[in-house]
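Quick one, probably user error.
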C-alpha cells in the first residue's frame, strides 16, 4: 500500500516527488518553509515555532520577544518580572550603584527604576 501524499502546511497542496521538508509536526514544499515575517528560507537554519508558525531567530528576537525595560533589547532567555515590566536578569539592578538586584531583595522605586535600600 502506498503512503498517503504529504500535504504542504503552507499552500495545502500535495507534495510530489519526495521533496517534502518535515518540520513542526508537518510537511512543506522546500520553497514554502519560510519565516512567517521576513519570508527568508528556513531549510537548514534554526527557527522558532510560535503558535504553529515558523520564525527565523532574528524576527523572533526583534518582533516577538518582549523587550527589556532597562536596555530595550529582546529578552530571549529567562526574564525578571518586576515593576510591571520585564528585564534581563543582569539588567535588573540598582539605578544608583548598579549592583544587581536579587529577586527576594527589597528595594525602593525611583522614577520607575529599582533602587537598593542601601542607596
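Nope, works fine. Designed sequence:
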Amino acid at each position: 500500500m502506498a503512503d498517503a501524499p504529504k500535504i504542504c502546511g503552507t499552500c495545502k497542496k500535495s507534495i510530489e516527488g519526495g521533496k517534502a521538508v518535515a518540520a513542526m509536526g508537518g510537511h512543506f514544499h522546500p520553497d514554502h518553509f519560510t519565516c512567517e515575517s521576513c519570508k527568508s528560507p528556513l531549510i537548514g537554519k534554526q527557527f522558532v515555532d510560535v503558535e504553529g508558525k515558523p520564525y527565523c531567530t532574528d524576527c523572533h528576537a526583534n518582533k516577538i520577544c518582549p523587550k527589556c525595560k532597562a536596555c530595550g533589547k529582546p529578552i530571549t532567555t529567562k526574564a525578571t518580572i518586576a515593576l510591571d515590566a520585564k528585564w534581563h536578569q543582569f539588567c535588573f539592578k540598582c539605578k544608583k550603584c548598579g549592583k544587581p538586584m536579587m529577586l527576594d531583595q527589597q528595594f525602593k522605586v525611583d522614577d520607575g527604576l529599582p533602587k537598593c535600600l542601601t542607596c
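The CA atoms of residues 98 and 115 lie 9 Å apart.
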